[in-house]
Amino acid sequence: MSKFYVSPITGKPLKKKGNWYISDSGSESFPIINSIPRFCSKSNYSESFGYQWNKFDITQLDSINKINLSEKRFYQSTNWDPKLISKENVLEVGSGAGRFTEVFLKTTKGTLHSIDYSNAVEANFKNNNKFNERLKLSQASIYEMPFLDNTFDKVFCLGVIQHTPSFEKSIESLIKKAKIGGEIVIDFYPIKGWYTKIHSKYILRPLTKKLTHKLLYKLISSNINWMIKLFDFLCLINLKILTRFIPIADLSIFPENLTSSQRKKWAIMDTFDMFSPEFDNPMRIDKVKKLFTKFCCEVTFAGYVKNNPNAFGAVIRAIKSY
Ligand SMILES: C[S@@+](CC[C@H](N)C(=O)[O-])C[C@H]1O[C@@H](n2cnc3c(N)ncnc32)[C@H](O)[C@@H]1O
User: Fold this and answer.
1) Which of 16, 64, 189, 252 has the most CB atoms at less than 10 Å from its CB?
2) Cβ of 163 less than 6 Å from ligand 1
3) pTM for the model
4) How many CB atoms lie within 10 A of CB 161?
């Protein structure tokens, strides 16, 4: 287990002194704010996620919704055994409000290192701090993680990589932190065909991501009712194909047992998630598979996994070979 953080810049070990992590020479220091070590600047491209996950901090938690949606996605994507991962060094990258953090901590006895680049870490801390010593949460970027290379038996990164500036660099960074023989699992937005980007998201996002988070949130929440009605109507008359032109998230992949107010909340959240990120780069599964091979991994699975009765995720599982 990596007991201590290292400087994400020089790799030098850091020691905790009061509300700081400091290098031996004292030349590098990283603050602990609200009990969370911070290894990146407060202001960065992922701020929309900080806004989103602090506003919708509990919306997608299995424990709140009394469903096991995130648990299913976690285990179906990773194919991991909760008993085995209880004894391993595991790293989560891009934890958001911590729905998968919760799954890991609830279903295993293990310790989890978890990072996110945005201040969504505050929401995750609030949600999962009850697991106390088993959660090692910090704010850091996938490109500058406060861990030595070759540290983790398992690394997972779900729903994140399409939102980073470089798919290739992100994969390389994840692989670096895994031990030789360690496993990396990601899921991501796939390019399914020529039609993938013919979608209101890709048409409007260049504009909507420039709006202030507050204004975008207001625009979405004040228009959500008619958009839900139109979406449902098009599905009812077998014209689901046209729903891609309504500026709303895909409601057909939501769990069916949500109440109408939960469904509305999820719709606002996922629509904000669709229009606010700085980056949204879907990728072809075969291309992502090649990237893992390029960075010395053996790909053990590359394809679609059924996350819930209505949704499939594009997943890669890979073992670091050398
Ligand atoms: C769509 S959210 C997914 C969060 C969580 N995995 C989930 O599925 O609920 C994407 C997350 O990736 C994080 N992220 C984006 N770029 C990152 C980076 N360079 N390093 C670490 N996290 C990053 C964002 O802050 C955001 O919380």
Assistant:
1) 189
2) yes
3) 0.97
4) 27
